[in-house]
Amino acid sequence: MTTILITGASSGIGARAAALLAQGGATVFGAARNARAIDGIPGVTAVPIDLTDPASIRRAVDLATERAGHVDVLINCAGYGEFGSVEETTLVDARRQLEVNVVGAVGLIQAVLPGMREARSGRIVNVSSLAGEFAAPLGGWYHASKFALEALSDSLRGEVRQYGIDVTVVQPSYVATGWHDDAMERLESVSAHGPYASMAAAMRRYFANPALARQFTTPDAVAALVAKAASTRRPRTRYRIGPGSNIAVALATILPDRAFDALTRKQFGYA
């Protein structure tokens, strides 16, 4: 039986993916700061974790290993969006963004890899974002965290292939969860009243548009893709999901930087 450790399992995509994987017969350990929220997911064992604490990361992996004997699949699904201008975001908040979205994920990878190498099999699924392919104003630190996760995934894939370990990335675009509300709250607290206030207001209007909300991907659809990335025999290196996501990445690749900047300003309604 496959043993899976998934972070961010207390809500949203992580909770749905954990439930789906458990329904499929896997032994699933769901990790989150709020571990009590995982108790109601059938077939999922709750594991408390603080991704900013190396000791907590080690304990989570040890618990899964002690109870199941091994971890076959690690899914890094936890994360949040630190929004606000680069100038106004404090370095304390910037470091926390990188600690949770990048360093904590790598800490888990480092903790599970020795067992995977010994077994000469395993899989690591990093839930990234289209934000790891291109960047927009007022999301610099969030984009930085996803760019870093993408780069680390590529490097890691080349390193561990020799041990029979796969590394794959899931890149959702906009998803209908509370993530955007939390990100807009961060934006409000950081940049709503300073020199970038008009840009912050435009971004809030953009995400409040009901027409945009209708284009959001459901968390169930993303969770199904995460489960596929974790369980399919020969996974792709990347799975992208969301209306227009492939077109957006193509435009970011082929357009000159300033042309893409102008397209982004028009999309969000910036002056």
Automatic annotation (TrEMBL):
Higher taxonomy: Bacteria, Bacillati, Actinomycetota, Actinomycetes, Micrococcales
Alphabetized InterPro entries for the sequence: KR_dom, NAD(P)-bd_dom_sf, SDR_fam
PANTHER family the UniProt entry points to: DEHYDROGENASE/REDUCTASE SDR FAMILY MEMBER 7B (PTHR44196), DEHYDROGENASE_REDUCTASE SDR FAMILY MEMBER 7B (PTHR44196:SF1)
Protein name (database record): SDR family NAD(P)-dependent oxidoreductase
Domain Ketoreductase positions: 2-182
Species name: Leifsonia sp. NPDC080035
Keywords: Oxidoreductase
Record GO terms (molecular function): oxidoreductase activity
GO terms for cellular component: membrane
A family per Pfam: adh_short
Record bears the keyword Oxidoreductase: yes
CDD domains reported in the protein's UniProt record: 17beta-HSD-like_SDR_c (cd05374)
Protein family (similarity comment): Belongs to the short-chain dehydrogenases/reductases (SDR) family.
Keyword Phosphoprotein attached: no
